[in-house]
Amino acid sequence: MSLRNILFGFAWLGVLLTPSMVAAERIKDITSIQGVRSNQLIGYGLVVGLDGTGDQTQQAPFSVQSIASMLGQLGVNLPPGINMQLRNIAAVMVTAALPAFAKPGQNIDVTVSSMGNAKSLRGGTLLMTPLKGIDNQVYAVAQGSLVIGGAGAGSAGSSVQINHLNAGRISAGAIVERAVPTVLGQGEHIHLELRDTDFTTARMIVETVNSRFPSGTATALDGRIIQIRAPLDSSQRVTFISQIENLEINPAQGPAKVIINARTGSVVMNQAVMLATSAVAHGNLSVIINTQPIISQPGPFSERGETVVVPQSQIEIRSDEGNLMLLPGAANLAEVVKALNAIGATPQDLLAILQALKAAGSLRAELEII
Question: Which family does it belong to (predicted)?
Fold first, then answer.
C-alpha cells in the first residue's frame, strides 16, 4: 500500500470520528474496578531437549551451573572439575501475569525467553520453574513443551520463513499455587477508574448510574475516579457491579491528537483537527492558511434580507515545481496532509511542517512523534 493511500485512509478516519457518530459504549469497556488487577510473575529456569541449538556453555557458564545445581537436588553428584559441553540446554526467563481472583490449581499461560546465546528454543521442554512475585513469594509453578511461532513452510516446501525463535509460549503452562487477595471495594464503596482521564465522561457515568439507581449512588471524585455505593453482601455486590458494567453511555470526544511515525511518514489523528491562520515555508514547499470573508447580499429591490459576512478558511500550498493547490473550506489537518502528499512531500517534509505548525500555535492538537 502506498504512503498516499495510507494518509488518505487516516485522513478519512479523522473526518468520520465526529461527535455525532460516537457510538454508545458499556461502562465496563472504558473503566476498571479499583483493586481488580493482574500481577506480574517472573522466574529463572532451564529448557532441555534442544537439537544442538542451546547455549554455548563456554560463553554462558550460568547454564552449566544451573544444570549442575538441578542434578544435585535430584541426587546426581557430578565429579568436581568436570567440563560439561552441553548444546541441548538453554537458560531462560519465564514470565506470566497472574489474573485477579486466580485460585490455586488454575492454569495460566507463560512466556519463555532465552537469556543466553541459544540459537533456537524450538522443540524444547521447560523444566519445573517457580514463578515469584514482587514480594519474592512463589505464586505459580511452570513446566511444559514450548510452542515457537514464526516458523513455517510454503506450498511443497518451496519457501521457508523463520522469524524469532528465542522466545515461545506454553499455553496453560503454569499452575497457580497461591492466590493474591483481591479486595472488591472498601466498606460500602467501590471505585471505578476511567482508562483515560476525562471529566466529561466521568460526569456522564455519574448521571447514568444515578438515573438507573437511587440518587447519590455514584459520585465523581475527580476526572478519573468514580465512587459507587454498593451493597455489603458479596453476592449482591457482584450482581450490582454486573449491572453497572453493562450500562451504556456516550463517552466524551477525547482531546485532538496527532501521531506521526517519523520513519514511515504515517499520520494518525483521532478527529478532525483544525488549523488556525498561519504560514509555513519549508524548502521548496510553502503552506499558507488564511481566512477569506464571503459576503452574501440580498437581491436588488429586495425588501427583506441583510448583508451577511461569513469567514471561510482557505489553504494554499505551493512548491518550486509549479504545483499549486487551493483548498477552500474548513482548514483541517486531513486536507493539508492529503494535499502535501499529492504534490510529492516526503515524510521528513511532512514532519517538519507539522512541527512548525504546532510551534506557531496553528495546530490545535497534541502532537506525538514515534
Answer: Belongs to the FlgI family.
Identify whether the C-beta of residue 42 lies closer than 8 Å to the C-beta of residue 132: yes
Please give the Cα distance from 1 to 337 (Å, whole number). Answer: 17
Q: What is the DSSP string of 314-345?
A: EEEEEETTS-EEEEES--BHHHHHHHHHHTT-
**Structural domain of 51:** 39-176
Instruction: Please report the pLDDT score of residue 171 as a whole number.
Output: 94
Taking the alpha carbons at both ends of the chain, their separation in whole angstroms is 20
Is 17 inside any structural domain?
Answer: no
CA angle, 257 then 355 then 351, to 5°:
90
290 and 203 together in one domain: no
**For 253, which DSSP code?**
P
Grid look-up 427583506 returns 304
Q: Is residue 114 part of a domain?
A: yes
**Residue 113 sits in the same domain as residue 204:** no
Whole-angstrom distance, CA of residue 228 vs CA of residue 181:
21
Establish if 61 belongs to a structural domain.
yes
Separation between Cα atoms, residue 258 and residue 275, nearest integer Å: 12
Residue spans of the chain under pLDDT 50: 1-21, 309-310
- Total count of domains within the chain: 3
Q: Are residues 182 and 136 in contact, defined by beta-carbon separation less than 8 angstroms?
A: no
* Residue 369: half-sphere exposure toward Cβ, Cα within 13 Å: 12
Give the helix/strand (H/E) hosting 235.
helix 234-245
